[in-house]
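Hello support,

Our group uses your service weekly, and this is the first time we've seen a run hang past the timeout. The protein is Branched-chain amino acid ABC transporter permease. I'm not sure whether the cause is the sequence or the server load. Input pasted verbatim:
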Amino acid sequence: MSILTSGRYRAWAGFALAALLLYVVAPAVLSDFRLSLLGKFLCFAIVAVGIGLAWGRGGMLTLGQGVFFGLGAYMMAMHLKIADAELRGDTVPDFMQIAGIRELPGYWVPFTSPIVTILGILLIPALVAFVLGLGVFKRRVKGAYFAILSQALAAAFAILLVGQQSTGGSNGLNRFRTFFGFNLNDPANKQMLFFIAAGVLLAVVAITRQLMNSRYGELLVAVRDQEERVRFLGYDPANIKLVAYVTAAFFAGLAGALFVPIVGIISPADVGIVPSIAFLIGVAIGGRSTLLGPVLGAIGVAWAQSAFSESFPSGWTYAQGLLFIVVVGFFPAGVAGLFALLKRKKKASSDEPAPPGPEDETEPTERMEMAR
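Update from on-call engineer: The timeout came from a worker crash unrelated to the input. Re-ran successfully.
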């Protein structure tokens, strides 16, 4: 096999092309507003990569990724609000002063430290997923029951946030001025945030590719298809599922933390049932069992929502639902699966034997006699 056609070098070429598009082409052709909008879409793509691993490869219909997305987002937002209050010389953020809160709540205090905030974003969503997954998978909860449970978790988390005045209630947290000392109103710093999101997305895709192509990736697919057979071979399917579920939660927490300074707001509406299902729709449309399908699907659906909602604000929800029904009903492997199917058909047609020529019109037995 030549170097240019080997899978390894094709993957490196793909990463190089993606880096070129994100770091050179996008900043050159997009305005500051559109670049920030693309950064928002990249955050959704990071979540989608984790869903593709857990759902596409592991068969776990994760309808509650908004929880882990929200955990990362709110931890980042809390730190940014505290930092803004310190710049003004206040002890509590501005919305707390309006609500009559004069002291910083106890669970806000750790997020005064940037290091603790970063560690919390990296660890807490994964730890929550580990505890939940351990309890669910060890009891062999799967299929529709797991999907309903994860969706109920997202709904409960959103309701909890709405009732908390110390996290902004239904309005959430917004109006951030700085990001670890950098002014968020500076276009150069906004571009820096886009570059960070692009780098995280590339790293997440690389990690997921390594998992998919490893021995673990084979076991994850085997658990999805024949869980009892994997258990009979001596492996614990619960542990295999748990790794994928925790990894997906870790990716979602990172995406939420990046979403806050890029978009400038986080509220319960961004972490409940509706956004969790929206994450899933992008993955399903792109192709849940592929590596790049979830990324392209999430970015494409988010772009379509932004573009069509500007012209048809009330019609996008119906169009999104119709698109999801069409894909699930007629193209269950998504757009990426459709392209793969067309590629296999083209290859099969090219491999068909040519029709017999005039010299091949003799019967096989006659040719054997002639050979003798």
